[in-house]
Amino acid sequence: MTRRLILMRHAKSSWDHPGHEDHARPLNGRGRHSASALGDWLRVHDYIPDQIISSSSQRTRETCAGLQLDVTADFTPRLYHAGPDDMHDELTQATGRTVLMLGHNPGIAWFAEMLVEQPPSHARFHDYPTCATLVADFPIDDWAQIQMGTAQVADFITPRELTG
What we know:
- The protein has helices at about 30-45, 60-65, 85-90, 105-115, 160-164, and strands spanning about 5-10, 50-55, 75, 100-105, 135-140, 150-155.
- By secondary structure, it is an alpha/beta fold.
- The chain has one domain (about 5-164): 3-Layer(aba) Sandwich (Rossmann fold), CATH 3.40.50.
- A 6-stranded mixed β-sheet has the order 3-2-4-1-5-6, with helices on both faces.
- α3 crosses α4.
């Protein structure tokens, strides 16, 4: 058996509202367009999650909504600016076969690097730009068995590849 993780950074957020706290920052137009494009890409490639675990921030909520996936999301404050350890701990509690995790940099980039056995030969993998998405497969039956450095990369993409 295998488990699949779709690890996505939130889409591009707006800095146009100086009074907003960081947690409340919304997406900008480019971010909304990117989220929609990534949702289409997930459907075309049949990378459909059966569980979504996301940071509780406004920009991750809007990214999740923009994907237009028919999956209920669990928005948790624990993933807001989480580091790899907290992301790992959240993932070990997952119940889905294919889990989409939505988070923030720098934690998500570090987590992606730690998870994979061999990183993809993609120029943007290590800086993990907004809405970057890793699809990785683990040779496990249960998320509680996840070990760092064991994931096989199935795919990696950035929104610029889809939107120009």
